[in-house]
């Protein structure tokens, strides 16, 4: 026997499509009016409202024929991101000369990158390879929570790293006394708490919504506004909270980072020797690269999603997928290339592993 919510859903969808079919000859404004009428009817009719057991993720609509081809670079980038950040964390933990606040924040950034890419890419690969389009409602909400929390958290970590560089370059004599390990621990707790508190209400904003039209999400992973738009209720609160609160916090982080680096550059160019200026700038170069790789694609994605109405949908979704895997892949590479201590630590660990393998084979 078909359950009543699902039967009601089927009836409502069939009714909607019948109305639209009968009005295909009408102009575009008539079709819009019909859609609005149907949405109003379903919103105020209790028997059509339900929470879907599963959502259906389409992957990248319009590029279904290229899913397998797209999966190869996505898989390689994901593996590179996980391995690169894991090696970075291992080197920071095992090398005693890297037990400093800057590298502690860098390890937090690496953990965030692993979580961000792991939250989204494996499901996208399952869609591309196994046609596993279904995702449970609770799993979808969980994915929304972690994607947005990692985004806000990474922004806060970059701000903490900028503050660390500000203290180290502008007031170096107070660096050891200001950034003690208890202070660094409180900063880390504040980053996690802020990110959690900002994104946690999204769970309730999604759970309160009734869904009555479709459970198909034209994306490869769940994101807040994309899921909310499937509801047959007013989502004004979701839109305002989903866009304003995280974006305002991230913009505040960007402003504070810009202020920090303007003060850093002013202090650097006041240094008497060119070697001192070069050394100070080199310590900030990798951090600036990571900041640009994080904020430029994110703001570009938000702006194209908000104002790029003429851009095809598959371009938006492709950019969103690249955003969650390309910066996590490049961050450990940038720090490995630009930071001598990390580069030396990786080489040291590599030779230790080779020596252990040689000893094991001889034994």
Automatic annotation (TrEMBL):
Q: Name one GO cellular component term.
A: plasma membrane
Read off the SUPFAM superfamilies from this record: Family A G protein-coupled receptor-like
Q: Which sequence ranges are marked TM in the entry?
A: 47-64, 70-93, 105-132, 144-163, 183-206, 247-269, 281-303, 315-335
Coiled-coil residue spans: none
Per UniProt, residues of the G-protein coupled receptors family 1 profile domain are 84-335
Provide an example Pfam family for this protein: 7tm_4
Q: Which InterPro entries match?
A: GPCR_Rhodpsn, GPCR_Rhodpsn_7TM, Olfact_rcpt, OR51/52/56-like
Membrane topology label: Multi-pass membrane protein
Question: What keywords would UniProt list here?
Answer: Cell membrane, G-protein coupled receptor, Membrane, Olfaction, Receptor, Sensory transduction, Transducer, Transmembrane, Transmembrane helix
Predominant location category: membrane
GO MF term list: G protein-coupled receptor activity; olfactory receptor activity
Q: Where in the cell is it found?
A: Cell membrane; Membrane
Q: Say yes or no: keyword Membrane present.
A: yes
Q: Which family does it belong to?
A: Belongs to the G-protein coupled receptor 1 family.
- PANTHER family in the record, alphabetically? OLFACTORY RECEPTOR 52B2 (PTHR26450:SF151), OLFACTORY RECEPTOR 56B1-RELATED (PTHR26450)
Function, in words:
Putative odorant or sperm cell receptor.
> Can you name this protein?
Olfactory receptor
The species is: Odocoileus virginianus (White-tailed deer)
């Amino acid at each position: 026997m078909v359950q009543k919510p699902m039967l009601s859903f089927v009836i409502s969808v069939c009714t909607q499509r019948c109305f639209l079919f009968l009005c295909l000859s009408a102009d575009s404004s008539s079709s819009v009016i019909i859609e609005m009428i149907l949405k109003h009817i379903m919103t105020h009719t209790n028997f059509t409202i339900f929470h879907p057991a599963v959502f259906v993720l389409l992957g990248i609509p319009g590029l279904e024929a290229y899913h397998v081809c797209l999966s190869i670079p996505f898989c390689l980038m994901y593996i590179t991101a996980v391995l690169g950040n894991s090696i970075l964390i291992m080197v920071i933990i095992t090398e005693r000369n890297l037990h400093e606040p800057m590298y502690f924040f860098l390890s937090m950034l690496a953990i965030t990158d692993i979580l961000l890419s792991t939250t989204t890419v494996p499901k996208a690969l399952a869609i591309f390879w196994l046609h596993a389009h279904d995702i449970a409602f609770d799993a979808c909400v969980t994915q929304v929570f972690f994607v947005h929390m990692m985004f806000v958290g990474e922004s806060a970590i970059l701000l903490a790293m900028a503050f660390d560089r500000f203290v180290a370059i502008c007031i170096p004599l107070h660096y050891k006394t200001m950034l003690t390990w208890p202070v660094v621990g409180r900063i880390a707790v504040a980053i996690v708490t802020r990110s959690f508190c900002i994104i946690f209400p999204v769970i309730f904003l999604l759970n309160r919504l009734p869904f009555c039209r479709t459970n198909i999400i034209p994306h490869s992973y769940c994101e807040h506004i994309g899921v909310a738009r499937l509801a047959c209720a007013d989502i004004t609160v979701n839109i305002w909270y989903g866009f304003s609160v995280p974006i305002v916090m991230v913009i505040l982080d960007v402003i504070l980072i810009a202020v920090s680096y303007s003060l850093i550059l002013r202090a650097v160019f006041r240094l008497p020797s060119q070697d001192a200026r070069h050394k100070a700038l080199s310590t900030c170069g990798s951090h600036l690269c990571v900041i640009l790789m994080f904020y430029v694609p994110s703001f570009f994605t938000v702006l194209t999603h908000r104002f790029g109405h003429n851009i095809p949908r598959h371009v938006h979704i492709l950019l969103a997928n690249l955003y969650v895997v390309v910066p996590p892949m490049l961050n450990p590479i940038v720090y490995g290339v630009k930071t001598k201590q990390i580069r030396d630590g990786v080489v040291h660990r590599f030779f230790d592993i080779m020596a252990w393998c040689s000893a094991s084979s001889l034994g």
